[in-house]
Amino acid sequence: MTSAKTIYAGCDQKLEIILREAAHIFARKGFRGATIRDIARQTGISLAGLYYYFRSKDELLFLIQKHCFEWLTLSLEQQLEGVADPVARLRLLVKNHLEYFLTNMREMKVLSHEAESLDGAFLAEIEQIKRRYYKICLSVVQELINAGKMKELNPRITVMSLLGMMNWIYNWYDAKRDGKVHDLANPMTEIFLRGILR
Amino acid sequence: MTSAKTIYAGCDQKLEIILREAAHIFARKGFRGATIRDIARQTGISLAGLYYYFRSKDELLFLIQKHCFEWLTLSLEQQLEGVADPVARLRLLVKNHLEYFLTNMREMKVLSHEAESLDGAFLAEIEQIKRRYYKICLSVVQELINAGKMKELNPRITVMSLLGMMNWIYNWYDAKRDGKVHDLANPMTEIFLRGILR
DNA sequence: TCGTTCTTCGAACGAACGTTCGAACTAAAT
DNA sequence: ATTTAGTTCGAACGTTCGTTCGAAGAACGA
């Protein structure tokens, strides 16, 4: 039996725990506000002992963001596979994004909110995944345009508006108040789809 | 002749400069990543000399957020004043928000992105303004519902979707690529309005 | 039992940070 | 000329942080 959270598959089991707890702490305190000592306390591993599993605090953030983003992208590609109808594809995009967001809220908050906390090669690799994800979103919108189903809207601004609508949820979503995935996905899909279709 | 940026009206002239430069640096490096020494270098004031104008780094962030948010709210209230038509009011809300955002991008990024960086009395006061602003947005949507012009959507989720769409722009807006205010406000208004109206 | 590799940790280092202190400078008022 | 209040700053303090080092323990095959 594997770990409860599938995001960190392929990792050492102890590293999984570290990444999960670190994501939790980064989400609550912010990357710079969080401390390796916080993670040591939370995981029960000593301060020095943690460095057996990662080389630096930056690499720790990188690993969290990378795993989170790669799974999100992979999940989207799988969902869209074999679906031809442009409207259905957009619905799937929204559903996948929000489902993943709510299921992995802490990691997605870290991915969204700490987008500028890395630099160098780490940042470059995350941005590469980001471009790949953005390209898929753009193509879904472009297919709607090509099918003549969409109003004449700037594709980039259209996609960014949708992503903003969805990514912002880490600032306000409250499970008790706002319900489950479909309680978000339905109105958001409705608003956006109806908003861009002819 | 007053200062170039009206946001910090009512402040000591030198404090205005400090707040403006600090907002610039907080936006670029993040609140915790930025240093009082950075602000000293940028303003030409010595490290110790800065503390004549504010009591702590936290208060500095608070002052930036407070001035920014109060002006935004005031501007919205003035724009809506005397306008009765619900659809027109929503258009004005979007226009005001985006106009203000693009005009004061650095401050609005600091306001949006550092929403959890304060605590205690500072946080409480900012959240009070936030509730006031949110209430206005909610009432604008509620008026649309009462007028029977809107679909049956959860008002809270509707408002948060709109705010997310707009607030996210600090993550992607590029003046050269994305044009001016109306290049954003027009498509966003169109998408959202068409998305929620019957 | 020995030797090797993997894993863990207490202790400490060096750097960076927010903040403070007391002195010095300025300028207007007495 | 002296006082007073407003303003500025070099230097330093105390704390916290990321990271490192060397040793010790655990696991396991030879």
Report on this structure:
Two copies of one chain form a homodimer. The first copy, chain A, is mostly helical. The first copy, chain A, has a single domain, classed as Tetracycline Repressor, domain 2 (Orthogonal Bundle), CATH 1.10.357. Chain A has helices spanning 13-29, 36-43, 47-50, 57-80, 86-103, 105-113, 120-146, 155-167, 175-178, 181-196. In chain A, helix 1 (13-29) packs across helix 4 and helix 4 crosses helix 6. The longest helix of chain A has 27 residues, at 120-146. The mean pLDDT of chain A is 96. The structure holds a DNA duplex (30 and 30 nucleotides).
CATH topology of chain A: Tetracycline Repressor, domain 2
- In N-to-C order, the SSE pattern of chain A is HHHHHHHHHH
Net shape of chain A: elongated
The tally of strands of chain A reads 0
| Mean pLDDT, all residues of chain A | 96
CATH class of chain A: Mainly Alpha
**How many alpha or pi helices of chain A?**
10
Sheet-strand content of chain A, in percent, reads: under 5%
Report the major sheet of chain A: none
Give me the CATH superfamily of chain A: Tetracycline Repressor, domain 2
